[in-house]
Amino acid sequence: MQDESGEVFQKHTKYFRETAFGQTLSWSSKTETYKSYPTKQIPLAVDYTTKSNARMPLIEALKKRKSVRNFSEEPLRLAELSFLYGLARVSEKKSRG
Question: What is the DSSP letter of 32?
Fold first, then answer.
């Protein structure tokens, strides 16, 4: 009896691409893949991309950016290291999905 119920379920729930979602699919009337938006530029109050309005152009500032870090000579305690390792594992799991 159980074998028959599985077959009945498969028969009634079988997927047919042509009649998906309870209707017949028509490839001639399908919607566009991507939506297009009208292009409208909004002028900014000040143009910071040129030297006349800023100390340096934005592109130059991005190229010259750097980060400075200071490290202590004191080693991390085991509790601090464990905490950081735990955060890295949580971040790794989230990035995988």
Answer: P
